Backbone:
């Protein structure tokens, strides 16, 4: 049971939130500083934000090295453990990638404003809170901070009709999902009498007073989680946001929040409701099945690259949930591994869109990649690797993460679901292959030389990002062990 | 040196491929030479493998093992027994000839083409030498990407259809093998093939595993009814792609049966051997007749490949009936040995046949039989090779094609005269379609102006076809170096298939 009277806050508590405190403070300073940065010098904001993210990542890393500091702070509201460390670290890494890829894209669209960077920084803060939350309250706080910033980000290009529509849909659906989640949380609170996650777990373990109430609570909590992940049938916002939002924003929404969503699922399902796993496992199995089927089948029909990526995300989330269903150390570490691997791959996929776009031309359709190999074989190779990784071909990280979740599902006695997932991985391979086909086999639409963003940082980071997909695919062992140790609490 | 020989054989073509892409970017000639030199070096490196393998001792040699992904206990472990050595040498040998064959035929993005073949070579050697199931799967699947690119970029008009079909069929087959392997891993805690072969598995689980392996390898072989991707892939692939596909990639299916199905699921394989035998006979007879009516040379040879590969699966699975039911372990050994010889021999013959078609195609740009006729008048040297390989394909004694088929038929006769009789039908059908093909293409009146202006093969092409011809003859008249190499490894396979695991 959580202590009803909060104990006095100690210095150690502040030490625990050092990375978050640094990020929040820097974001606030940057908010003010940005007012004085002239419009044509916004690159300064860009580099400063990137610096803030990198420093925060270093702080998280350093904090995570010292296991003796693990534990909870602020009366259990804030947790510091292995999962929090690794999730936060990779949230920061993928957000940094996002910023690098976003710069050329923002410049092309004339959206290079300070708001973008500040909203990103605050949503990263929200995600970090989610990853470290020890209470339903902190989860909700982090979630809403992330969500509100994301709604605003999607609407960043306010003169674009598609973006406004996407933002509207995202906001309405998101608000509903938040409501559901809150509703579920209130039921669990009603049944257990506490908001503290470990307290809830204990209460469910000892003697469940109101099993029906808890069960209802779980249903709504699962819906909230499913919405954040974008699993079918709560995926409606995904394609619209991916397609409507500026590339720089879609890029963000498609990568780091998946890790945050995993963290939220881990906190709620494992930390709080771990003793009721038989109740949520089957619900998640249905969600996973639907996502695999819907995501893969609808993606085949897409000609718009971003929409295809959106539906492919739905299917990937189906795989990610496969690990959650398996539960336990094996399952949750597999899902964490999946979320990280997917976030890195998705960031690279959007980086490719930015690469192919130029002022006044957004490479949105799959056909825009036609004949890339004849124009530049290095960039064609990048597309090949990213698509191969998304399809789950061995040698790329996409295979290793799929292998892990399939193992988790079979380990959790969901062999039938693993078989279906395998079959739909083949369906998925089809549409990824189509992109490779367009890149390698089709003739280019114009003879003009390829115009790519004249930003060497961007091109280098993208190249390294893609090579990392191979590197992790062949030598992903240490990252995987890190995930397992984190979830096992070693 | 020898303890890293297999790693060297895998690493050399990969590094060479990267070098080819970098150095040959602006010059096709550089790309050709760099890749050829790398392939020759790899071939040279495989000679110590052949010479250094102690066939008397048998077992896995050149073993190396290094922890790869520790949390799932996967190892980067390589090793080769006699069967692997034979197939690795086949791979390095064919790769050199493929690069020679493509010297002039490919003039677009040469550096990518030759590099793709080097990557493919490395991955295929990896498949034949991996002793860790996960590592095997990695090579097995990654191989698809270079092949996908080779067919799709340099292939014929319907290449996109063919290449996507090829990829999806094989991907579909192997994903279920992966799930089977995961299941096995969760039961036994190891990916090591030797340890998996020693594990006891109940019959129901074995049956499911058997089907998951069957799906993966039957698509690769390919067996009836999952063979339909092969004619499409062959017809659209460039010559080199066809050669590698027929000569080596199909063998990976047969190899998989010997490495996975037989040792890991011997009881289920025994129970279900009738199914594989029936499918093999359908492939041998029915597909042989299908080959008879083809009008496209490549399609004809592709169907002939399916038919000949039927002998491999027949020889492999007839061994169960022989060894377990009639206790004829010698006959079982003969069947397996026949299957292996047939794999190697088919590698040479089909590689040569596809190269011959490539030679014609480079000149006339047609693969249709009706566009030729009387080629012997303008290309006597070529005609000599073509007739020779045609004879080998129909199983003429003295060529490698005869040895394998004969051994398999002999072995199956001891199991059932009916099976032997059915399999022997292929000797007639095979002779019919091959000789008819040769007759229509090579002999008769000169059909048209294209043929009238043909020039005979040049030294480069003669070198390539000559090398294939020597290999075919060598295995045909003196198979001992090959059979001795594999002898003790095949004894081990027979011992494994006799092991009751339930």
Residues:
């Amino acid at each position: 049971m959580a202590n009803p009277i909060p104990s006095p806050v100690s210095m150690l508590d502040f030490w625990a939130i050092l990375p978050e405190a640094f990020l929040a403070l820097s974001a606030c300073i940057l908010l003010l500083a940005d007012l004085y940065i002239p419009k044509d010098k916004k690159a300064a904001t860009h580099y400063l934000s990137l610096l803030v993210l990198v420093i925060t990542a270093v702080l998280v890393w350093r904090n995570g090295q010292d296991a003796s500091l693990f534990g909870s702070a602020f009366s259990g509201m804030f947790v510091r453990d292995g999962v929090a460390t690794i999730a936060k670290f990779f949230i920061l890494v993928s957000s940094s990638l996002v910023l690098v890829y976003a710069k050329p894209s923002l410049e092309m669209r004339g959206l290079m404003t300070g708001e973008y960077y500040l909203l990103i920084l605050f949503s990263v803060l929200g995600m970090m809170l989610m990853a470290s939350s020890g209470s339903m309250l902190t989860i909700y706080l982090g979630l809403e901070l992330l969500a509100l910033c994301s709604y605003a980000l999607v609407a960043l290009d306010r003169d674009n009709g598609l973006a406004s529509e996407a933002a509207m849909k995202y906001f309405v659906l998101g608000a509903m999902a938040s409501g559901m989640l809150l509703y579920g949380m209130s039921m669990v609170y009603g049944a257990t009498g506490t908001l503290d996650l470990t307290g809830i777990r204990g209460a469910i373990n000892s003697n469940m007073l109101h099993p029906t109430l808890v069960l209802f609570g779980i249903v709504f909590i699962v819906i909230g989680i499913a919405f954040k992940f974008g699993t079918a049938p709560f995926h409606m916002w995904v394609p619209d946001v991916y397609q409507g939002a500026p590339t720089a924003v879609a890029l963000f929404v498609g990568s780091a929040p998946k890790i945050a969503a995993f963290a939220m699922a881990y906190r709620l399902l494992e930390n709080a409701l771990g003793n009721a796993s038989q109740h949520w496992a089957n619900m998640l199995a249905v969600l996973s099945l639907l996502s695999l089927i819907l995501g893969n089948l609808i993606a085949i029909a897409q000609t718009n690259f971003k929409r295809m990526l959106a539906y492919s995300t739905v299917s990937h989330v189906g795989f990610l949930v496969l690990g959650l269903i398996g539960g336990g150390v094996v399952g949750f570490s597999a899902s964490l591994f999946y979320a990280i691997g997917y976030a890195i791959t998705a960031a690279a996929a959007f980086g490719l869109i930015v690469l192919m776009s130029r002022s006044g031309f957004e490479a949105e359709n799959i056909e825009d990649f036609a004949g890339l190999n004849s124009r530049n074989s290095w960039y064609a190779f990048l597309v090949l690797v990213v698509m191969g990784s998304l399809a789950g071909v061995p040698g790329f990280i996409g295979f290793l993460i799929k292998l892990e979740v399939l193992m988790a599902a079979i380990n959790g006695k969901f062999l039938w679901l693993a078989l279906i997932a395998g079959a739909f991985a083949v369906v998925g391979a089809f549409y990824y292959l189509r992109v490779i086909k367009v890149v390698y086999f089709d003739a280019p639409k114009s003879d003009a030389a390829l115009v790519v963003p004249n930003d060497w940082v961007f091109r280098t980071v993208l190249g390294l990002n893609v090579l990392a997909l191979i590197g992790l695919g062949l030598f992903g062992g240490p990252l995987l062990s890190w995930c397992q140790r984190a979830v096992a609490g070693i | 040196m020898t303890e890293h020989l297999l790693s060297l054989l895998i690493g050399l073509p990969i590094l060479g491929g990267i070098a080819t892409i970098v150095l040959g970017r602006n010059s096709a000639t550089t790309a050709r030479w760099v890749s050829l030199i790398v392939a020759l070096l790899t071939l040279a490196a495989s000679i110590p493998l052949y010479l250094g393998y102690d066939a008397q001792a048998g077992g896995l040699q050149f073993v190396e093992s290094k922890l790869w992904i520790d949390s799932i206990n996967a190892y980067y472990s390589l090793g080769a027994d006699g069967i692997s050595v034979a197939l690795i040498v086949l791979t390095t040998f064919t790769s050199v000839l493929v690069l020679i064959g493509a010297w002039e035929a490919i003039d677009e993005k040469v550096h990518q083409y030759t590099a793709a073949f080097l990557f493919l070579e490395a991955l295929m050697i990896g498949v034949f030498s991996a002793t860790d199931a996960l590592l095997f799967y990695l090579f097995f699947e990654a191989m698809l990407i270079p092949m996908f690119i080779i067919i799709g970029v340099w292939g014929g008009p319907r290449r996109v259809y063919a290449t996507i079909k090829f990829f999806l069929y094989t991907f579909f087959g192997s994903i279920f093998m992966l799930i089977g392997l995961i299941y096995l891993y969760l039961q036994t805690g190891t990916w090591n093939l030797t340890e998996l072969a020693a594990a006891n598995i109940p019959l129901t689980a074995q049956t499911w595993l058997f089907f998951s392996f069957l799906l993966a390898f039957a698509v690769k072989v390919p067996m009836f009814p999952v063979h339909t991707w092969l004619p499409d892939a062959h017809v659209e692939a460039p010559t080199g792609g066809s050669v590698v596909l027929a000569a080596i990639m199909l063998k990976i299916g047969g190899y998989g049966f010997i490495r996975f199905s037989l040792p890991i699921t011997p009881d289920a394989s025994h129970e279900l051997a009738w199914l594989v035998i029936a499918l093999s006979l359908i492939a041998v007879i029915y597909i042989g007749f299908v080959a008879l009516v083809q009008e496209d040379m490549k399609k004809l040879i592709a169907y002939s490949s399916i038919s000949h590969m039927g002998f491999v699966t027949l020889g492999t699975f007839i061994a169960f009936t022989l060894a377990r039911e009639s206790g004829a372990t010698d006959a079982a050994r003969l069947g397996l040995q026949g299957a292996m010889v047939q794999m190697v021999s088919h590698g040479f013959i089909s590689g040569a046949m596809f190269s011959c078609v490539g030679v014609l195609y480079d000149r006339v740009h047609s693969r249709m039989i009706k566009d030729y006729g009387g080629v012997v008048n303008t290309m006597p040297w070529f005609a000599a090779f073509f007739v020779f390989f045609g004879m080998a394909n129909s199983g003429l004694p003295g060529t490698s094609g005869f040895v394998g088929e004969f051994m398999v038929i002999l072995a199956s006769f001891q199991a059932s005269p009916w099976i032997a009789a059915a399999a022997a039908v292929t000797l007639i059908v095979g002779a019919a379609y091959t000789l008819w093909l040769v007759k229509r293409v090579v002999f008769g009146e000169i059909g048209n102006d294209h043929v009238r202006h043909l020039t005979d093969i040049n030294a480069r092409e003669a070198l390539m076809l000559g090398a294939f011809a020597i290999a075919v003859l060598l295995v045909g008249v003196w198979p001992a170096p090959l059979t001795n190499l594999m002898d003790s490894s095949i004894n081990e396979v027979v011992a494994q298939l006799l092991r009751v695991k339930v």
The CA atoms of residues 2 and 62 of chain B lie 6 Å apart. The beta strands of chain B are 61-69, 74-80. The first helix of chain B runs from residue 5 to 23. Chain B has a mean pLDDT of 87.
